Amino acid sequence: MPYAYDDQNIFAKILRGEIPAKPVFESEHTLAFPDISPKKKAHVLVIPKGPYRCYDHFVQAASDAEQLDFFKSVAKVAELMGVAESAGGEGFRLITNSGAHSHQEVPHFHVHLLGGEPCGPLVCD
Ligand code: AMP
């Protein structure tokens, strides 16, 4: 079944400038901004600018240039946030939710980049 993309989701509105966000990083294909409800001292969302619903949709449908740009941008954001070891940080966690079982709330592919303090167990029951 093809992935349907709802362009009325919150991140699509941020990309169109209809909802404010303060970018911490932007590249040709990628945007990063703070999560509105941070779960750790550092909590940034990294999203592609293209209309992809989730990780698997992104990998199937995005161009190589978009995918390379996205994953390099995630690393760049970890450096800018000072959580990457290369920036003297103590590490970080990446989370991406895909679909109903993951409890994905916003149907636009995004990676949560969390750090600045210990992240705890991998998952909770
Ligand atoms: P997920 O459950 O993986 O889809 O996560 C969606 C995330 O988007 C949550 O952590 C929300 O706090 C965050 N979020 C929702 N609206 C906004 C917004 N306007 N700006 C920044 N983050 C948001």
UniProtKB/TrEMBL annotation:
| Alphabetized GO MF terms | catalytic activity
Query: Residue limits of the HIT domain?
Result: 10-125
According to its UniProt record, which residues of this chain constitute the active site?
110 (tele-amp-histidine intermediate)
SUPFAM superfamilies hit by this protein? HIT-like
What Gene3D superfamilies does the entry give? HIT-like (3.30.428.10)
Domain of life according to the entry: Bacteria
Locus of motif Histidine triad motif: 108-112
- State a single Pfam family of this protein: HIT
What protein am I looking at?
A: Histidine triad (HIT) family protein
Native source species: Celeribacter persicus
Classification lineage: Bacteria, Pseudomonadati, Pseudomonadota, Alphaproteobacteria, Rhodobacterales
